[in-house]
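Weekly puzzle thread! Below is a chain. First person to post its structure in token form gets bragging rights.
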Amino acid sequence: MTAKKITMTAAQIAVDLGDGSERGEYVNQDYILHRLGRPHRAINLMYCYYPLDAGWPVRASDLPRKDGTSPTGAWDYPYDDYFPYEGGLAGKTGDCQPFASMKDVRRHGQDIILTLTVDPAVSDAHLVRIAEELRPFGRLMLRINHEAMGSWFAYNKRFSYQAVADFFVRFHKIIKEHAPHIRTILCVGDGKVHETGKLKYEDEFAEAISVADIWSADTYLSLHFGWPFDIAEPGGMTHKRVTNQDIFDGLKFENERFLAYGNARAFALNEFNADGDVNGPFEQASQVEEFYLDLPKEASFVGAVTFYQFRDRGRLGLEIEDPSNADCGYEQPIFETYKKIIALPQHLPEMTQGEDVSFPAVLRWGGSEDADGISIPLSLESAPVFCEATFDGEGADLNLMLEINGRWFYKKPGAKTIDLMPAFFTATAGDVALNIFAPPPTGTNAPGPLQGDDWAINYRTQIKNPPKMRIRYRPTM
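Winning reply:
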């Protein structure tokens, strides 16, 4: 069986996905991959770190209120109601959070965006420990104290905007000293044009803008920010709605302001959606689709968009969480729309074939935008009835991502045969290729026999033989 080297690089506009937040639980990557048919560039996970607070690390909404009152809003808690970051000083790693989820994400061929709200009062020792804990997770993107120009998070209630900005710079410098391959994200954009001609609190965040690796904005076409404490009804004051052009104008304004502080950086839209609580399910799907379609020509500087989120207790998800069973979700009209969006050419990673490969072969995983795999050409007589790939011997122990005919599959260590037929349920057949990549099986990078000095950013796997293909064009008689 012949094989060629194949290199995967960045899409024109990367598609990322939020998975879990104050509004929904984490959904495992196997389920998401089966439902959407392809991995994302990155998965955004949202956590908080307030280790100096009484009650930590209990989730904020689970803490008893000493005065006996009930919360009146989504952020009416002692600290931010994200999942607690259980590492740090006096913390733990292993299978606790967010490390278990981060490993799940990377095993499935995706990078991590870790959104982390942090108490600026913590010492450098806390930040050094976090940097060291995150170092094995490859080219992770760390979004520190996002929406920093707002007023709802605990760090902004406790500290001035200048102090929050200075904390970002302090944490960024520690990251660069202890895990320099990790990129920091500064989110001070809100998708609005401000009459002052500057970003909100731009002067305070000037140094942070200059040092950040990635500039970012969070914005929604519509949002019911009073959820879940009220209902968005006409005339209400706890929801908003704008046009697509409003957002595009705001993004252009923000990019110009960012560029005033230095060379161009990657610009990401790290939270984006239209809220079904406001638009209803059908207009939500149509407005979001129009935004993605117009994005390349309206705001070509945006290199990545994170859809918020996969499953939501409200109407900000591709699925709504079943109130009777949190493990289940039921899809909204935007689900099928989103599947079409992420299959558009501008959102697909580039695949470039190279020279012939002989076995055993070494596969390199640098991340979802930088990986070397193998490509096995297949010439199909007609649409197959059976199409399977079997990995014998040591091949069964490999952790692999497989792509064929536009559909992706995950093979965990120990799985031997992968049924590839879903790739042909709706797509035509002909000359296709089976592309194989090998993310780290533990979800983390580490020094080892195959790993070089660049082990922190590149994980290498040896595959001794190609898979055995079983392709049949008629039912078994």
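Puzzle host: Confirmed. Bonus trivia for everyone else. Residues 357-472 form one domain.
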